[in-house]
## 1
Amino acid sequence: MKGRCPHCGHDVFYTPEPVHPSIQTQSTIMDNTFVTLSEHEGVTVSFWSCPNCGHTVVFSKINLGKDRPVKARTVWPFAANRHVPSSVPKHIMKDYVESAEVLPISEEASAALSRRCLQTVLKESGGAKKNDLSDQIDEVLPSLPTTLRESVDHIRVIGNFAAHSIKSKASGQIIEVQVGEAEWNLDVLDMLFDFYYVIPAKAKEKRDAANLKLKAAGKPPMK
C-alpha cells in the first residue's frame, strides 16, 4: 500500500506489520489485518510499517453495510507530524495545527481551516486586498517564484473553485472536498511559510551576525 507517512512525511510503500499476538482474534484475516463484527459490516483495522522511518501506521475502514460508503481513516498516529517553524505568527500557526490535527478525522473540516489559514497568509504577508480567496490568489501570484506560483494556483484546480463558489470565498463552511485537497492545502502552506517567514528570518539572522562583526571591526552596518 502506498501513502505519505504521517510520521516522517515521505511518500512510501508501506510494509505489512503483523498484528501483535495480544490483539489477535478469530477475526484476523491477514497477518496485519483483523475485522471486528463481520467481514461485511464492522471495522477493519490494518497495521503497516514505514520503510523510511520504521514507525507503525494503523488504518481503519468502517463498513456500515450495503449501500453505505466505506469510511477509511488513519488511527495512528492521530495527526500527521507536521513541523511549524517558530517564525510563523502564532494565530496563523493555530489554524494550521488545527487543520493538520483534524485531517485524519475530517478532510472537509481540515480543508476549511487550511483555506482560512491561507487567506490570512495572503492578506497579511502577501499584501492581498480583495475579499475572496480566489481573487486574493490572483493578486499574490505575480509576486511569487514560478514553482510556488504554480503550487498556489493548483489549489483552485484541485478544489475546483469554478464549481464551488464557497471555496473561492473561503467562508470556512464545511463542504465536500476532492481526495488529497486538504493535504495539498497544508503542503502549499508549508511552502508559503518558507517563503514569507523562514527564509526572511534566516536572512535577518545572518545579516545581524554580519553586522556584529562589522561593528566590532569599526565598520558601518549592512543596510
Note: Helices lie at 90-102, 107-124, 133-140, 146-159, 165-169, 181-216.
## 2
Amino acid sequence: MKLIDFLVETKLYVGNIFEIIATITGIWYLIKSDKVSSEIKYFVYYLIFIIILEMYGYLPILAYLEDYKVLSFFEDSIFRRNIWWVNMLSVITTLCVSWIFIRSLSKFDTRKKLTILLFLFTVFSLISFTTFGDFFHANDPYVNITGVLIILVCVGFYYIDLLKSNRILTFHQDIRFYISIGMVLWNLSLVPAQIYLGFFNLENPDFINMYTKVLRYANILLYSIFTIGFIIDYRSNKGRKETLVN
C-alpha cells in the first residue's frame, strides 16, 4: 500500500509511537495515582485527542496517494489537507498547556490575569481564522506565534512561583515541570519551521523532507519527556506515601 511506503519513507510513524507510549503512560498514571488534579487529567485526555487527530490525519494522505480511488469524498472537500486541524490544535494546545501552569500559581491575581489572556487569545484566534486567516488551507502564523508566547509566559510565571515557594525542593518530582521543559524545547525547535508550512507541498520536496525530520525528532523528545515525567511523578508520590505509612 502506498500509505505504508509513505510512512516508511518519511518515518512519521516513529513520532506516533512515542505519542502512544506517552499517552499509555499517562493513562497508567491516572489509574494508579490516588489523587490527580483536574488539569493533569485533562492533559492526559488532550494526549488521547492528539492520537485521534493524528490517526485521522492519515486518511486524506491515503486518499491522495491512491489518487482518490479510495475515500474519494476528500478530493473536493475543504478537509483534503490537514492544515485545518493543525490550526485548531495550536489553539487547543495553548489553552490546555497554559491552564496547567495557571492553576499551579499561588497568587490569585496572576491566575486571573492569565485566564483573561487565554480568553482574549481564543477570541483573537476565532477572528483570525474567520477573517484574514485561511483556516483550511494555510497555517496561521499569527495564532501560532501568539499561542507559543502565551505558553512561554505561563511557564515563566510557573518557574517564578516555584522559586518563591518550598516546591522548588521537589520540582523534579512534579509532572508539570516535565510538561514545561517538553513544551519549551518543542516550540523552540519546531515553531520556526511551522511558520513556513505554506511551502509544505509537492513543489518543495526539500522543505517537506526537512520539516518531517524536524517534526519527528521534536516529537520523540517531547513525548519522551512526558513519559519520564509521568513515571517520576508517580514513583515520587508513591515513595512519599510509603514513608508516611511507615
Note: The mean pLDDT is 88.
## 3
Amino acid sequence: MKTYLVTGGAGFIGCNFIRYMLGKYGDIKVINLDALTYAGSLDNLRDVENDARYRFVHGDVCDAVLVPSLFKGENIDIVVNFAAESHVDRSIADPDVFALTNFMGTLNLLNAARAAWLTGDDVYKDGAKFVQISTDEVYGSLGPEGLFTENTPLDPRSPYSASKAAADLMVKAYADTYKMPVNITRCSNNYGPCQYPEKLIPLMIKNALEHKPLPVYGDGLNVRDWLYVDDHCAAIDLVIENGGQGEIYNIGGHNEYPNIEIVKLLLDYMNNNIDSEINESLITYVTDRKGHDRRYAIDPQKIHRELGWLPETKFSDGIVKTVGWYVRRRKHG
C-alpha cells in the first residue's frame, strides 16, 4: 500500500486530487497536511473524512518538527505538494507570507523527504517521489502568439509567481545535486468545484448569484488557458506513476479565453438556466492590478507525448458542472 502525503489537501486542487485518488485506487493511504488558512476547508472533504484510508493532520509545511515526524510515523512514499499561498493580489499586499509558505515550506518538505527516503549514496527508497505542483505563471507573460513550453525561461512577475519559481528551482536543485526522485508540474488556470471565491470563475458565479457587481480588471482582455480540475488530477496521477526522473511537465487545457469572454459565458449560461435577472449589466470594470500578465498559454505536448495525457472535459461541460456545484453549495450551505 502506497502512502501519499498531500500538502494543502483542504484547498481547491488538493481536495479534488484526494477525492480523485481515493476513488481510483483501493490500496492507497492519504495523509492530508493542511494549515487550514482562509482558502482551505475540511468541508471540501466531508465525503471522505470517515474513509479508513484517509487521515487529516492540521499543520504547517514549514513546521520542522511535525513534517519529519509524519515521514517517520506514516512511512510516506509520495509527496504531492499543493500547499501554497496562490492569490496574486494578496502576494502584492503581503509578499513575506508567500516567500515563507511557498519557498521555505517546500524546502522543509524536501529536507524531510530526503532524510526519510535516502538509503545510500544518492540511492532512495524504492517508489519514492516528490511532486511539486507549480503554475504557468512562473514563465511570465506571453504576447498574442506562442505557448509556454517546459524550456521557456522563467520570468515571474509577481511575488506569488516569484515564490513559486524559487521553490521550483530548489526542487530541481535537489534532483540535480542529490539525485532525489522529483517531478515538477506547471498547470494553467484551474476551475471546478471547491475553489475559494477570490479567483475569477468562482467570484463571478458567487457575485452573480447574489446580484452583486462583477469586477473585471482593466479592459478584460487578459487571456488565460482554462483546465478543469479533474483533468489536472488525472495528469498528476500519471506524472506520479510514469514521470521521468527530474522532468517538468506542463499541463494545459487547450481553452484560451479573454477574461471578459469567460464572464459573459458564465452570465449567459446562468441567465438561461439559473436566474433570468443575471445579465451583463452586473459587469463592472475596475482598475487593473499591478503587474497583470497579459496572456498565459500552455503547450502540453510533452505530457501527451510521454505519458499519454489529454484533457477530457470540454469547457462548456466543465462550466455547467462548476456553476451547478456553487448553486447547490449556496442552497444547502
Note: The chain has ten helices and 14 strands.
